[in-house]
């Protein structure tokens, strides 16, 4: 046991592997489960729950900060290798991510590490001659180059869009009120919700768009809601969507407001790579076990390339809810009012250039890595 090589794992302590990424968490779990290496997990807060959990599983947990060089020296001392990930989203600064990454490279070099797996991404700004700038990619690209330049034995991995993003910031949303407002009597007939529980998303009158947003669980209230909905004349906009008043009459019998969800990936019809970040661990374990084969390599990861419509279709099929592709353009996407909208739109523009991600190599390194279909199947209750 004492002779096992020590791997230092960064980023293993996110609060939950499901709701957040946690590349390092997946790596630490795979290494601990396999047993070939000893694991030292690095965190700024060794008392937090995920740190305790890692300790219970057999990891050494140490306190260090990527902004504090002396703490990194201590964390990497005596290690054979490391898994390194920096978290752009914590500060949203390309410069800071470069500083952290270069500091980690310098310390790895000084400590004589024999194999570092660095989670990088392309320097999009450089690759596109300045046409595109994706700050959370560009900084990692600079760091990739630095690890190689100063001669740290490194394998670079580039993750694709995490499937887990569909449970967090890319969780399929209800169509905005009034926008894809569809009355579908067939859907009403198909779904037991029609009489058991009707969720009234919006009641639009011809004069105003009064919003009633609540779930009605009693059949009586549901019937009342249906009756009210049928009596209130819809706005001209909704009427246009209904196409024919006859349709409304028929719909009045089995009336349901559209419960469909939509994805929001501004990719048009271009396929986008993805994988479950939970499946990363065995990939990194495989790399660390074959240094001769993988040191010096840059490996783009993916378990499949799907269009937005294909992602939506699989979500529909597996969850039983109607999920539609929004077909939003990057231009519309970046106008949205949330922090990071522009940055994320730029990332999708880069994804549309189809960066190199290898499904075959990913599956070779982790034959159990799941396709989107399998992953949604495992997580359908979370949608
Ligand atoms: N979401 C995607 O689809 C995707 C795809 C490819 C790449 N990425 C990249 O993945 C990175 C984030 O990785 P993740 O998803 O695994 O993150 P995460 O689950 O949010 O976890 C962040 C981890 O980083 C650690 N950390 C942050 N700042 C630190 C510091 N100064 N010193 C030491 N540890 C620090 C945290 O440890 P403590 O808080 O315990 O100290 C935590 O364990 C981002 O840079 C992002 O660009 C994301």
In short:
With 383 residues, this protein is α/β, with parallel strands linked by helices. Helices cover 42% and strands 14% of the residues.
Give structural notes:
This protein has about 375 residues and is α/β, with parallel strands linked by helices. The chain contains 18 helices and 15 strands. It folds into 2 domains: about 280 residues, NAD(P)-binding Rossmann-like Domain (Rossmann fold, 3-Layer(aba) Sandwich), CATH 3.40.50; about 80 residues, no CATH class. Helix content is about 40%, strand content about 15%. A 7-stranded parallel beta sheet has the order 3-2-1-4-5-6-13, sandwiched between helices. The radius of gyration is 25 Å and the shape is globular. The structure holds NADP nicotinamide-adenine-dinucleotide phosphate. NADP nicotinamide-adenine-dinucleotide phosphate binds next to helix 1, strand 2 and strand 7. It comes from Lonchura striata (white-rumped munia). Keywords: Cytoplasm, NADP, Nucleus. This is NmrA-like family domain-containing protein 1.
């Amino acid at each position: 046991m004492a002779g096992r090589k020590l791997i230092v794992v960064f980023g293993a302590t996110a609060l939950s592997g499901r709701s957040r990424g946690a590349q390092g968490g997946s790596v630490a779990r795979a290494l601990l489960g396999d047993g070939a290496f000893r694991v030292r997990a690095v965190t700024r807060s060794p008392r937090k729950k995920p740190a305790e959990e890692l300790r219970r599983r057999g990891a050494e947990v140490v306190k260090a900060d990527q902004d504090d060089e002396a703490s990194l020296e201590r964390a990497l001392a005596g290690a054979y290798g490391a898994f390194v990930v920096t978290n752009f989203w914590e500060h949203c600064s390309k410069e800071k991510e470069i500083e952290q990454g270069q500091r980690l490279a310098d310390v790895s070099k000084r400590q004589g590490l024999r194999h570092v797996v660095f989670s990088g991404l392309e320097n999009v700004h450089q690759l596109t001659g300045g046409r595109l700038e994706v700050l959370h990619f560009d900084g990692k690209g600079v760091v990739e180059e630095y690890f190689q330049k100063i001669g740290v034995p490194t394998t670079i991995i580039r993750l694709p869009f995490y499937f887990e993003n569909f449970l967090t910031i890319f969780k399929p949303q209800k169509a905005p009120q009034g926008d894809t407002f569809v009355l579908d009597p067939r859907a009403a007939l198909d779904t037991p919700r029609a009489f058991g529980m009707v969720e009234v998303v919006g009641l639009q009158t011809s004069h105003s768009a009064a919003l009633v947003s609540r779930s009605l669980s009693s059949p009586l209230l549901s019937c009342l809601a249906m009756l009210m909905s049928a009596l209130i004349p819809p706005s001209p906009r909704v009427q246009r969507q209904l196409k024919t008043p006859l349709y409304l009459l028929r719909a009045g019998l089995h009336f349901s407001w559209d419960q469909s969800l939509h994805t929001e990936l501004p990719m048009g019809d271009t396929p986008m790579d993805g994988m479950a970040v939970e499946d990363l661990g065995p990939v990194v374990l495989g790399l660390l076990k074959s240094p001769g084969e993988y040191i010096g390599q840059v490996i783009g990861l993916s378990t499949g390339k799907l269009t937005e419509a294909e992602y939506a279709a699989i979500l529909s099929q597996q969850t039983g809810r109607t999920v539609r592709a929004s077909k939003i353009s990057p231009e519309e996407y970046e106008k949205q009012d949330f922090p990071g909208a522009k940055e994320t739109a730029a990332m999708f523009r880069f994804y549309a250039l189809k960066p190199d991600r290898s499904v075959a190599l990913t599956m070779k390194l982790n034959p159990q890595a799941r396709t989107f279909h399998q992953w949604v199947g495992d997580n359908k209750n979370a949608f």
